[in-house]
Amino acid sequence: MKNYRILITIFLAMLITKYGHAQYVPLDNTYHDRLMQYYQSHGRSFLSSMKPYLFQRDDSAAVLEQELYPDVAHIKYHERWILRKVFNENLVRYHTGDFRLTADPLFDFGAGRESVESKNTWKNTRGLAMTGVLGHSFSFSTEIYENQGIFPSYIDSITRAYAVMPGQGFVKSFRDGKGFDYFYSNGYLNYSPSKYADLTLGYGKNFIGDGYRSMLLSDASFNYPYFKVTANFSKIKYTVLYAQFMDRQTPDPTFGYARKWSTMHYLQALLWGRLSIGFFDAVIWEHNDTASYRGFDVQYLNPVILLRPVEESFRSPDNAMMGGTFNLRLNRNFNFYGQLFLDEFKLSHMLKNDGWWANKYGYQFGISGWNLLNIKSLNARIEYNQARPYTYSYMRSVESYSHFNQPLAHPMGANFREGVFMASYTTGNWMANIKTVFAVYGVDTAGKDFGKNVFRSYYDAVSELNNKIGQGLKTNLSVIDASVSYLLNRRTNMRIEFGITSRNEHNNHYDKQMFWIYGGIRTGLRNLYFDY
Predict the structure, then answer these.
(1) What per-residue confidence (pLDDT) applies to 73?
(2) pLDDT of residue 175
(3) Contact predicate 123/520, CB 8 Å
(4) What are the residue ranges of helices labelled H in 70-116?
(5) Are 306 and 315 a contacting pair, CB within 8 Å?
(6) Stretches in the chain below the pLDDT threshold 50
(7) What CATH code is assigned to 2-522?
(8) Residue 422: strand, helix, or coil
């Protein structure tokens, strides 16, 4: 009871402070890179690990407008209304008093050719985005997408295996089973009672970390309903995230598929102007346990970080996890960052290095650079990720760290090592990108659980000891993607893009090689991942 009194006191203190609305930056890597480039080049640090970024109007509106949507010299500002709307402005932009509204079409029209089945690929996505501000305290956003398409063989096979389009949800058969039809939407309503607090009710995704991947919480899986409380105090940011996930591995007579709940805490602090450190913990429990209806467990409303003592206090069988992050700004050009995820472990087994199955953890190290070689907008990233076998899994699929048939952290699940290299160069409206992913992982074989599939029970572990990354059917993966694009409108990230993807996955049982040439015109306000 004492904890709830503390929470009420803090909340009331935030409410009586002078308010100012907050604005979310789209959860899109292009926007994030622009902001990070700005902050790095100006020698400034900010707490960047909790995404999407939420900026207060009073101190960051100028950054948002100038860095995300600049009217710079190389962008011609058109005089005719229709040309302004296409190339410079939001399609609808309505401001009156304390009410502001913008609306834009969303689309992704593309076509390509892949080598495996010598087939043509195409995608037809239409949608709408709306954002608004009500008074000084409320802001909102919503996006909807309607999609049809025929996809490269590796995306097609992943989608058929899990009955979901990666990151985009449930699919229906299309064109006599050759393609997929699916609908996608997200949105949020944000209330900012003061510059110290934000309350967000949403249906979408969140991301924790400073890398391309996240070992804690990524945006690779499908959308989910959540309620997020964010507190900002000078150089400290504290986030509490309550969410509901779905386990499509487990049928449920009421909801169709089993539901599960989660409470996550993430505390980040900026030290000495250059180093930020973060602490993460989370717990997952099922909506209906084996005995009876459970629903949202009020024990986990506790806003104080460290859920493990709460779980232990009533001998809970729930899945609890912990982790940490750091981000060190080395200079105006480089950041060094990392993460550690702890699922379960025993120090005695760690010291013995005996490969005990329940020593489940993952980590990440990376370095990102901006304006390299004194060339403006030449940016690059090198990153390493790994997770031991059985990490993120639990006694049953419904309690695993997953949602809608995808892992909640790294999209490869567990039992892998991965290296990522990314580079981009922007000049005027032109951008060139290259991304390479190299990974080694162990695939389940002969019906045995070697630890990659997070949905399988860890009771099925193939061995008590001597478990190591790559066990099972050892597989090597390489993905190389290169693209060039021309930006048409910065406010919607509308661009014409052409690229080529080379993917090679091989082991002792098969060798899958694919080349895919693609092109199209699209808007970009989201991240989609097909590089695993």
Answers:
(1) 38
(2) 87
(3) yes
(4) 81-87
(5) no
(6) 1-19, 57-61, 72-75, 313
(7) 2.40.160.130
(8) strand
